[in-house]
Amino acid sequence: MDRRDTLRWMLAAAAAPAWRTAGAAVAAPRAGKGIGTDPDLRAAYERGTLWPLTFTAAQSRCAAALCGVIIPADERSPGADELGVHEFIDEWISAPYPDQRKDRDVVLEGLAWIDAEAGRRFGHAFAELAPEQQQAICDDICWVEQAGHRFVKPAKFFALFRDLTAGGFYTTPEGTKDLRFAGNVASENFDGPPAAVLKIVGVS
Amino acid sequence: MGFVTPRTLAGDYDVIVVGSGAAGGQTAYTLALEGVRVLMLEAGRRYDVAESPMFRTYGEAPLRGSGTPDKPFGFYDATIDGGWTVPGEPYHSASSSPDEQFMWWRARMLGGRTNHWGRIALRNGPYDFKPRTRDGLGFDWPIGYDELAPWYDKVEMLIGVYGSNEGLENTPDSPEGCLLPAPAARVGERLIRQRAATLGVPVVPIHRAVLTRKLDHQRIPALLHPGNERAQRLVAADMQARSACFWATPCGRGCSIRATYQSPAVHLPPALASGNLDIVCDAMAYEVTLDARGKASGVRFVDKTTGRHEAVTARAVVLAASACESVRILLNSKSAAFPDGLANSSGKVGRYIMDTVGSDLEGQIPLLEDLPPHNEDGAGGSHLYAPWWLYGRQGRDWEKGGLGFARGYHIELGTGRRMPGADTGAQLEWLTRGSYGRRFKEDVRRYYGSFVSFSGRGEMIPNEHSYCEIDPHAKDKWGIPVLRFHWRWSAHETRQAAHMQKTFADIVDAMGGKVVGRPEPDGAKAIAPGGSIIHEVGGALMGADPKRSVTNAWCQTWDVSNLFVTDGAPFPSNADKNPTLTIMALAWRAADHIAQRLRRKEI
Predict the structure, then answer these.
(1) CA separation for the pair B590, B319 (Å, rounded)
(2) A119 touches B: beta carbon within 8 Å
(3) Cα dist. B113→B78, B108, B129, B170, B245 in Å?
(4) Whether B583 contacts B25, CB under 8 Å
(5) Does the beta-carbon distance from A95 to B367 stay under 8 Å?
(6) pTM for the complete prediction?
(7) Sign of the torsion formed by the C-alpha atoms of B49, B54, B58 and B62
(8) pLDDT digit string (tens) for A60-73?
(9) ipTM over 0.90
(10) CB contact (8 A) between residue A35 and residue B70
């Protein structure tokens, strides 16, 4: 990290308040037509066709990095960032519905905060930090109940972002496979749980 | 005959049926197979179960399939052009108080709400037809269980219902040969059964309208239509075309293999095949017309495809548009003879709207963590449930029973490793202490499938404060005056909801689990909003006294002898048993009666 970068981040961090008041700095989404009451249930939907997306390149990088920190690759499945879960989060916060509008404010402000915090602490955007640096920030905001006063709002953002990352990840084929979900296949019979399962739980 | 438009209608219908769901479907089925020429009017578009998005995963849907105001039960829910609101077709609440709201779910599509319903198909018991006799509250039905039982048998055999006979109080057994085998219980359901038993709560197979095996097309048709060989042949052919459940995909998306009951999959095909049924879709009925003798002469409707107002005539009219929509049509059918709405000389049209008492609780069960993966899709919904078990503390001396409420509830169960959705892995912080990264992935694997949910579904007693009327100031986009709802729970319902919460928490405790959140001790907060369980009944109650009821025991209005209401509107009470099976049994019985009277030229 060179000195100029550090200085820039420090200035940015000084200018950025601990947390903006809700909605103040967040642009409203551009209107989209929404899903409608009679959509084609069997069509493939390209993100961005039902409503325009929101993330700038920088927001997208930050969101992808955070997805990867929350659900990294391991021996069983890829990371959420590799599967484009941040793109789903962009789709989510851009949707023209009340619940998503609420989440939009939290997510955009949270991404701005986490980049500013990364700059404050380490002089770089969150996406450019080393894993232990990213972890140092996330450790402070990963549990609302235990978050210090300064981190309560960022922790609420993190909780929401983790929920969205999980929902986005486990609905991909790779995420569904990670959970060893065995259903959604047609079969001739339904025999109920295997004997081994009944034995573990102690039921007949 | 078949799907027609206002331009291609025939002119000689015997009966107009308004609505195409459980009531309209059953009424049209029975009449058409008995040789009666029927015109069905449906306010929504034509729908075929082949449209069902059966194996789609949530990852393929916008917002991972989450509910939105235009698709409130999720993207893949079968409901089309419906939900808590319908664009351009408002309804209003008379009160701004949050606990006096009524939520009205409509589905403007062929088959209506039968396309996404829970498929739970329970019979009312003997007490449920004579509640006032039993405890002095509400109203008795003018018929008893034994009078309706033969039609319950027929409906179960036609639509296909799985379940078992347990011989429990006020939870009727079906005669041999009516029910299909119950599916094997899931592991979570078995654990609930084991632990609930220690609290005296019986857990047994639920009854749902899903074919766990193919219907017996050689035996059943003759029992449904004795002496009517043509009907037997048509029904047998259609039964062969329905597949048994293939143990995958949520029923609420619709079932393209026709293994579950939906009106467009079960009632309408044989009725159409009879050649006696015409259907006009996109036909928004708003008025029943009268002739000079005070008999119903037909129906006025808006053709939604052209915006034109149309009129059709027939020898009789059946309203089956959903309880509140049928009430709306009656109240909007004003004439010199009926200035307050048709068939409303009693002043009771719109009165005593009921829903089901609902309250839910979830638990997280360590015993169900990290189980060996196995397929738990089963028949879609619950395989087991707990019927009401405390009848002994109610009845005439309910106040001494110590419960504080006079009617019961049953418990529906949700368990298992279901297809991952937008909420999978969410809201785990209280268990994971905020984990993220590799540990979070391990935590999600651990907790996936370890949750159980309990949904209490209880009886509401009809009251004077829960009713609907025409809003004097508002019309829908077709120019039709809309409904305004008045709603109030009594302590019977709110105390019952509080009892549900405590019971569910006790069961979670007995399972060695932890309640998600906390049980709500205040019944007024624990109870789901009026209408939100989508068991709307009442509004045109049947009774023995024309001065205090709208229809007689045959769903025939007292005031207009060729006008019938066969949906949930005539229910004088709303037992905890989900109303759909009873709607169908009543509709079949009423339609048999109509067919007989038409044959005798009495209509």
Answers:
(1) 12
(2) no
(3) 9, 9, 25, 27, 20
(4) no
(5) no
(6) 0.95
(7) negative
(8) 999 999 999 999 99
(9) yes
(10) yes
